[in-house]
Amino acid sequence: MAMSRSIERIGRLRELIATDGLDALLVSGKENVRYLSAFTGTNGTLLIDPDDAYLLTDFRYVEQAADQSPDFEVIDGGETPRKRLAERMNTRAKVGFDDADMRVKNHAALVEELSEGTELVAAAGVVEKLRAVKDADEIDAIARAAAIADSIYSTISEEGLAGRSEKDVAWRIEWLARERGASGLSFPPIVAGGPHGALPHAEPRDRKIGDGELVVLDLGVVFDGYCSDCTRTFASGNVDGHAREIYDIVLDAQRTALAQIAEGVECQLIDKSARDVIDAAGYADQFGHSTGHGVGVEVHELPTLSSRSKDVLELGNVVTVEPGIYLPGEFGVRIEDLVVVADDGPRVLTPFEKQLLVVD
Ligand code: ZN
Ligand code: ZN
Asked: What is the pLDDT of residue 247?
């Protein structure tokens, strides 16, 4: 029988725990718990050491946990969940915890229960490092999510944009996602026409999209627990030369960065390659966000493609490449693809047209 997903992930996690000099790791974040154990309940904490793997939950979820997470010993926390957890932790000296997730008061209450020889050590990001490298099944789920999003772009561009409100288009996107098999959206879609497109995270408004505007559409769907993320900028009718010029600079930056995607490449260099194109065109100050991010069970994951990133691309990373130029009071342009770092180079999951599409 093939090794279960959980066993394989716990094995990789144990290697990371040892590398970090820890004797055990507490996993509290919901996405991380689900990633390692497949448990989907709202109350679950994992404790993983070199010999054992525990899942602490409460009475409501004991049966579900046993069913979803057969590779874990399920503990019913009862009236004293921290005591039950500490009993298992007290055999270990250094126990890592997720300081980006655990509340200060929960941390203090847990420390109360620990014996002299056991220390809680801040260790955020350990499971996130594992999650950054996707297996074939995960890549397949992300690819299916991306394909649904691509088909939504096709439909929306056939239906046209001018005369519809941004909110109407956003609702249409959500409806199409559900109709085509997505369990939901990765994030509320961005539909931003004209000057509104200069806000990188614009919220859709009641305002009707005019004729001849640049319209930024950024959307992602969830399929089988995995997200996609893709942006296209459309023209709702003919736009002037200035708009086309900016569009082409962003497209050039996006293609340049995309071509750099390969195993072993420093993420900050990919960011720089996009930024260099935009800087050279004179719009350095109009590209105020990072070039990309990992995507998986959450829409923002490791690695980070930014100027300060220390991450290096690994096989199995799935990342976005999304430079943009934002001209306040005028318009914005962003073009975003979702890409797998594969052994034969970048594998683009979002093949939808990248030349400026004029949709009436
Ligand atoms: Zn996006
Ligand atoms: Zn993105």
From this structure: 98
Specify whether 30 is located in the same domain as 9: yes
Q: Domain end: 86, 115, 131, which one?
A: 131
Range of the domain at 45: 5-131
Residue 321 Cα, ligand 2 centroid: separation in angstroms? 8
Please give the distance, rounded to the nearest whole angstrom, from the Cα atom of residue 299 to the centre of ligand 1.
8
Strands 53-57 and 73-76: parallel
Q: How many domains does the structure of the chain reveal?
A: 2
What CATH number is attached to the domain comprising 56? 3.40.350.10
pTM (two decimals): 0.93
Ligand with smallest separation from the Cα of 216:
1
Nearest to 126 by CA among 42, 9, 45, 290: 9
- Residue 4 confidence (pLDDT): 86
Task: Write out the E strands in 157-229.
Answer: 184-185, 190-193, 214-219, 221-223, 226-227
The ligand placed nearest to the CA atom of residue 189 is: 1
Confirm whether 355 is domain-assigned: no
Q: Give the per-residue pLDDT at 2.
A: 59
Q: Which residues of the chain fall below pLDDT 50?
A: 1
**In-domain check, residue 202:** yes
- Tell me the CA distances in angstroms from 110 to 103, 118, 193, one per residue in order: 11, 11, 50
**What is the Å distance from ligand 1's center to 146 Cα?**
11
Q: At which of 103, 131, 159 does a domain end?
A: 131
